[in-house]
């Protein structure tokens, strides 16, 4: 077997993101757009979380899970959109090693937690529909807390294992061909093979090349939609459209906000 030598990078490592290919004149309007979207994400999810926390009539399994989903959306939206704003406003695409891994962990935790929390919400609806007479006996406060903690625990453990498998992997490059940092994009810089992540990486490559005629900026934009669209519309879908929660929001605005104006 042939020995292959390499020279790994030493700390401090600073990565450079590929980002979007936009001029500074286009960067400012894009920054304003992302800032406006991020403000709406913050406003919608914070309002949903605040109303559920304040109104004791909403301390029910479904709404508590919606509150956790809102917190998860804030995690994913903040991890990606703040990076986009820095790129568009300052043109700064460099990111330190620790910040890169922190962003990657937040991004993957968001992706995993969304699935587990939605599964918990589906379980709650299943019990409500299939066992309506026993719903309150099954979904007690203790059981609700257990289900929510289990949802977060599964997501966090999955991501912890994913990153633990790659701790200490030597890196031979700093240029990340992505808009944000992810486990796969960082491992693409590894000096040694990473077979554990090959299946995942190959799937991403296949999906990203399904439409080869699409401009590169459009492809990059599509990869970040999952961190922008759900955090933006989830407060509407699971929050404001729900009559009970909408009523509580209106009541809160009338009793606590309107009198101060």
What does this entry look like structurally?
Keywords: Membrane, Transducer, Transmembrane, Transmembrane helix. With 261 residues, the protein is mainly α. It has a single domain (14-253), classed as Rhopdopsin 7-helix transmembrane proteins, CATH 1.20.1070.10. It contains 10 helices and 3 strands; from the N terminus they run βααβαααβααααα. It has a 3-stranded mixed beta sheet with strand order 2-1-3. It is globular. The protein starts with 13 loop residues before the first strand and ends with a helix.
Structure at a glance:
It is a multi-pass membrane protein. Residues 44-261 form the G-protein coupled receptors family 1 profile domain. The protein starts with 13 loop residues before the first strand and ends with a helix.
